[in-house]
Amino acid sequence: MSRILVLVRHGQSEWNLKNLFTGWKDPDLTDKGVEEAKSAGRKLKAEAFEFDAAFTSELSRAQRTLDLMLGELGQSDLPITRHLALNERDYGDLSGLNKDDAREKWGEDQVHIWRRSYDTPPPGGESLKDTGARVWPYFIHDILPKVMAGGTVLVAAHGNSLRSLVMALDGLSPEEIVGEEIATGIPIVYRLNADTTVAEKRVLQG
Q: I need a labelling partner for 51 at 20 to 30 A (CA). Which of 25, 71, 121, 187 fits?
């Protein structure tokens, strides 16, 4: 019974590079992002991971990251489930704006609150709390059962959808999750106990 869950944030996107709020917009990976995704796949292959299922969002940067990882793993035929519940946090009116321009328009403090507070959404968008409200039920009903059946499951998603999962898995408070960063292309490996608690967590940096 392996009960392994691996979380990977997509590689750098074109809008990450341009310092733009991305949210549900759909830019592709940069060349660096492609290499980050391939590197994540190589790290997982070096640890001899063989996945039983994979999940990703409906956004192409996460889907392509997953495809590139599976290519490195030699598991391109793995069943993949795509669902909008795993999409990045919706930044609403901020989507597509340069972060520096947003600070000039609304002020440094207000933009910081929108970006980093737990439950204050930007205009027309989602807070991290809102994001978790769609991510966590989907995880419980669709992803977790495959892990608890003894599977090894790969999830390629986004900084904030994955922060929502990490918050719950690690038992972090709203104050603690605010400071938690998920790096692009770095696999986070969880091994779960029979009661769904975390037995072990590893971050594959090297």
A: 25
